[in-house]
Each structure stands twice: as C-alpha cells, then as structure tokens.
Specification:
- The chain is mostly helical.
- Among the domains are: 63 residues, no CATH class; 45 residues, no CATH class.
- Helix content is 60%, strand content 0%.
- Helix 1 runs antiparallel to helix 2, helix 1 packs across helix 3 and helix 4 crosses helix 5.
- The two termini are 44 Å apart.
Length: 162
C-alpha cells in the first residue's frame, strides 16, 4: 500500500461524519417502525410481524401505541431525548477552543465552562463523553502518599516479578 492519503481530512470531519451517521440511524429506526405499522394495517398477525422484523412483542406494541397516540410524529425521536446532544456543532467548536485557551484539565472544569458559556447542565459522565468526542483523553488520578519514598516508582520497576 502506498503512502498516498486516501481521504483529505480537515478539522471536525470525524465529528461531522458521526453526526450524519446518527441522523441516518434515526431515520432508519423510524422507517423500521413504519414498516411494522404498515404490516399491522395490512392485518398481519402480530407473531408474524415480530418474527419478520426481529423485534420483541413488547416493542411492537410500544410502536403501535406510539402510532395511536400521535401518528408519524410520535414515532420520531423527540428533541432533547436520549442520544441528542444539548450542544450544537458550533458550540462544540467554541468549547474545544475554550478548553485549550483556559488549559482545562478536569471534567469538573469543563462542566463549569459549559454551564457558564451555554447555560446547559450535564452530568460528569456526560462531560467525560464530550471530552472523548473532542479527542481529549483523561486518566483517573492516583494518590501520592506522604510517606512514600520519592523514588517509589523506580523501586517498583526494579522489583522482580513473582
């Protein structure tokens, strides 16, 4: 294989592609629900429908209930429901810049800046996911004990494996 670059990358391309994939996945989910509704409208037996579409009976009845309560719109994902980000792509770019400019290191610091800049509240776990999405890595801190010798790491490396 040659060293030729197959795809020209630019800042944010991966995030952009992931966003498009999410949109299409959501459209596919709605399409699958509509196929089930169509089969119900054609009076197919519910057991045949769940076998045909590979879903559980509970899922089929939930989709039917959603349809009965609000038609096509009820089958679509609600804005702000699980899986939908509270921040726009532009806000993610602003956040990325703010993290770099303020040299933020912890999820708590990032959480605070998001609340300050955008007025949006996230859990710390969600902040960790956001940081991962922005290509930041993090490690859990470890304790440094006061009584630990200054060369403890070197001593540990020299200890033979038992």
């Amino acid at each position: 294989m040659s060293n030729q670059t197959l795809i020209e990358e630019y800042p944010g391309i991966i995030s952009e592609i992931q966003t498009e994939i999410k949109k299409l996945e959501n459209d596919t989910r709605v399409l699958n629900k509509l196929y089930v509704i169509l089969d119900v409208l054609h009076d197919e037996p519910i057991n045949d429908i769940i076998n045909k579409h590979g879903i559980s009976q509970g899922t089929a009845y939930n989709w039917i209930k959603q349809w009965n309560n609000g038609g096509m719109e009820a089958l679509k994902r609600k804005k702000g429901s699980k899986g939908q980000s509270k921040l726009t792509e532009e806000q993610f770019l602003i956040l990325d810049k703010a993290i770099q400019e303020n040299n933020l290191k912890t999820a708590k610091e990032v959480k605070h800046i998001i609340e300050t800049l955008f007025g949006v509240k996230y859990s710390l776990r969600s902040i960790e996911r956001i940081m991962k999405k922005l290509d930041y890595t993090y490690t859990k801190p470890y304790k440094i004990y006061a009584k630990m010798p200054k060369d403890a790491e070197e001593q540990l490396k020299k200890t033979p494996d038992i």
